[in-house]
Amino acid sequence: MEFLKKVLEEYALTAEEKQVLDKKIDxxxxxxxxxxxxxxxxxxxxxxxxxxxxxxLKNDFDCDVFVMxxxxxxxxxxSSLSDYTEKILKNAVGKPVRLHGxxxxxxxxxxxxxxxxxxxxxxxxxxxxxxxxxxxxLHTSWILGNIKKRPELRDQIVLTKLFFKxxxxxxxxxxxxxxxxxxxxxxxxxxxxFLRLLTAATSWKDRVIIxxxxxxxxxxxxxxxxxxxxxxxxxxxPIQPERNASSSLSVEKFELLRKKAQEFxxxxxxxxxxxxxxxxELLRKKNKDVLLICAKPLRGKKDVVGSKLLKVFLHLKTQLxxxxxxxxxxxxxxxxxxxxxxxxxxxxxxxxxxHHGPPMAKEQAVAAFKKKHKDCFSExxxxxxxxxxxxxxxxxxxxxxxxxxxxxxxxxxxxxxxA
Length: 419
Description:
The protein is α+β, with helices and mostly antiparallel strands. It has 15 helices and 14 strands. It is elongated and about 80 Å long.
């Protein structure tokens, strides 16, 4: 597939662009480190993430910077690292935006968009980590070590990130539930290339287990906490083998990757690497009867706001299915406002449905069921009731549930889009 080289060239920095970028990053880190020394704090700011790995995408990356605090001096002050970092940043480069997490971190724009994460310097020993973010620099070191041995992995990671971003598969945030950059690094290290990953994904079953470092031999799942193995992809973290690196991956994103991999391998095209915003007219072109809803999000932290939008989408989807409608497709996208779409198999359903009751042998339960429901009948040793539906048209059902308190509390406004 010769066009893959052109895709890489389109998103790769020229030598001149990389030089300019490197200077901006170095200047920022230098300012932070100068302030750290001035304050007499035992710490150092270092580059991390895709910028350190050389796997960032042109015009599409945040620059991660770790402020690494001396372990011996600060291990008992883990909760204060964010406060120290905030003071350093204010004095060195200006007031940052503080974001809440397992340990608060920071965002700020200084020519580039920077994300600054305070961590304890745990060396190469992941077991010393007090917070999950303390291990992040080791993830960078791990993939850099693999790239050093197999330089071709770098381009393969870039191709995979481009594809995953374009196909709405990228991001481990709670409202996306997709593939993180770390997960992509592990998958490409395991499979060796973008094309081999996609080929493998087409034959993935309901649960896939990958232990790239062979920590656990033939049956790694026996060694993980049950809470860590609910995702369809079990990816043993190479640095923390007790952790499933893809634990936040949803079944929907897992299935979407399988589908998109099949589509790409059937008809390979550079268009698969171009992210397109999902618009009402495109959805209606595919299915003129698609039901579309526009939701204006609340203000707040993106992850929190996105999680509320996801809950609204899932609530509406559940109501349609509980109402007796069969969905052939459903999804949502969020740029400025959120767009929800539902493709319903039936334009109209029967005004009645059959409600299953208890077995006839359970006389008391049957008597209670018949008392509650008037139109009952028995068949195959079980009692049933014929009940009237509230809605026979999917549009009417959605209109009603848009006013649910559950929905109204999680969006600024929401409305159906007219055909």
